[in-house]
Design a protein that fits this description.
Blueprint: E1 4-8, H1 14-24, E2 28-32, H2 36-45, E3 49-51, H3 59-73, E4 78-81, H4 96-123, E5 127-133, H5 148-165, E6 170-177, E7 180-181, H6 184-189, E8 198-199, H7 201-212, E9 222-225
Parallel strand pairs: 1-2, 1-4, 2-3, 4-5, 5-6, 6-9, 7-8
Helix pairs in contact: 1-7, 3-4, 4-5
Length: about 230
Amino acid sequence: MKPLAIITGVGPGTGSAMVRCFHDGGFRVAMIARSAERLATLEQDLPDAFAMPCDVSDSAALNATLAAIEAHAGTPKVVIHNAVGGAFGNFLDIAPDILERNFQVNVMALLHLSRWATPRMAAAGGGSLIVTGNTSSLRGKANFAGFAPTKAAQRILAESIAREMGPKNVHVAYLMIDAVIDLAWTRERYKDKPDDYFIKPADIAAEAWHIAHQPRSAWSFLTELRPSGESW
């Protein structure tokens, strides 16, 4: 039987690219996102991918979705938390409930995913939990007050899980993307930028695949990705 990957935040960019990467690599893929329509399109194209529409900020819905995935496909070998809640604004402008919702998506959903997945993976002999993040997890810029605190908490939570689960053969990693992702709307917004300013979703997915298949003697926790044209 093919191994199972669960991927949250299956949008038109990174999430879809990860689904295609793991599907083409021989995995069954459970796709989680709020948009049932987008998932249905991918499901039609990829015979071993199946749609599980869910808002990960709703813990009850997420836990029910994970139970349904387990009943349908068993224990995952790889789980990727790619869902993201974000908003721009300084601490005076951002609505407190926006920060709270972003915390639910970025941190609490990770907590629920990890509490469900990692014990099962450990019991099955091992697996990988990968969290996609960005440089907001390391610094709090003025207009990122509704976002950066949640990504910093997410990274620290992931590190705590990694230290707990590593000895149990579950590899937990934080994939930090320091880049503008190459999408139609970002190309339009930054149309004066050259190609090497953007990071391609397929290349992010390829690195997630690499992390999920690292040998146990050389696991990484924090992996940074940026295109050659990124200023850092």
